[in-house]
Amino acid sequence: MINRVYVFFIIGILIGFLMTVAIAVSGITGYTLKTTIQMIQKPELRVFIASSLLNVVKNVSAQFEKEHNCTIIFNSAGSDSLTQQIQSGSPADVFMAADFKWTKQLQTQGLLYGDTYWNFTTNKLVVALPIDNTKNLTSLADLTHSGVNVIVAAWTVPAGSYTNKTLIKISTTWGNPTNPSYKGTDYESYRDKIIANIISYETSVQNIVGKLKLGVADAGFVYTTDVAFQGNALKYIPIPSDVNTIGTYGISVISSTKQQGLASLYTLFWLSSEGQTLLKQFGFSTDISKFF
Amino acid sequence: MMSQKISDHFSNVTSNIFLISICLLLCGFIAIPLLSIFLNVDIPQVKKQLSNPEVVSALITGLVTALVSTIISMIFAIPTAYLLANRKFPGKTIIDTLLDIPMVLPPAVAGLALLLAFAPRGILGSKLSQLGIILPGSMLAVIMAQTFVASVFTLRSSRMAFEHIDKRLIDNAKLFTNSKLRILLTVTLPLAKNGIIYGVLMTWARSMGEFGATILFAGNLPGVTQTMPLAIYTLMSEDIFASNTLSVILITVSFTVLIIFKSFNRGEVMES
To answer: ipTM above 0.85?
Structure first.
């Protein structure tokens, strides 16, 4: 009896081993098969992209894929985490960041192809409101009222760092009695008053938009492009340009790319008048001449 | 006979080697990432972070909310577990399945579900906001998220413990007393103790680590809804080593509490 149990046990182990080997072999052949097919078929272009750009960029990827016979794969997240992924060696071909400080950082670390990046578009902030605007907010001063719930992006992501800069600008210009553009007591220590009303520091602008649509907060600082893309789903209060913060986007080819040609073509597309027109349609500013 | 003994011995050795090597592979896979967190940290950094008010408040927020969630889970999950283990009633399977859902639900889905129900524009939230109660952005929302995700551990473990009690022991007890409460307190609960404690500990640990449901439903506000996992995630973009240090602090605190509890019930909790 005991002997039989052991026989079964050994047979079990053998079957286990065989299955492992079979899985490994099929995995390896599957992998080589996949890569061969890809080699015959189409090259892959991995685009690491700031979440605020995803909507506009997705819009033309089919056309680019067709023209250049390739497949574009998007990896979208906050520019800061994308930078970290590239630094830690994730395979990437093109990097489109919402703040050129991240592309610049990669440049100093020698991670950019040809050691260059381009500032290819800009974006600015607005205060987005849920469509029903229950607190009847109409001006930036209204955001300081007690009981108004505000959400912002965490100071560490580009949208958040721009929000912080704008809040500081409002406090020091509109809220400074000795400043010629002083606008009244509502704006004195404006940043502190807003911070007292903040109910969440979100990790991406997309979360702010989603939460505003659910009525989680009464107002949120987002990009103009986010409100533009939402159409009639959100209201907004514009932020005048003297206190607004302009976000400059950077595009670059990553040095470890195996698709230099394709990646450069893709980058050039966004710098071309066609790409710039498209960005404009989605609410981005195209006044990039000053960056060259 | 001799040859059979040798072959027995041989197969014993091979099977042991096989099992041990499989076990070691699994241990390595779990241990290496955990070790990397500890190897990347230096002590001055930990000291520095422990005096950072944001870290301290995240730690306190986490400990307080996890404690409250655990207590709420105990109040609701243990009686429910007792009911499900001891009574038969129509619809029991449906209730059973419903209460198991949080176990398999991705935490992000749990957070979204809570938002759709309790956010000011949600199904119940619209009524609450008329009363002036806004849940997102409050500590109560953190507790709700944690209870939603973690109470199932207390429920499952206590239920199993109640089911495994030898019914003859209860019958014997009935010979001595007519008080059901007395039987519950002196026989049933002591016999189910290990399973209940194990479940409560798992609920606490899961609450301390809750991330997805919290950041979606309660939001990320230092001092109010920012627990340790949220602080770790927020800091990651700024300074990956600082968030690594926070991870070390979180793991150490959680482990210490678990070990203290386990040593109080030495051997017993481990068995269940």
So the answer is: no
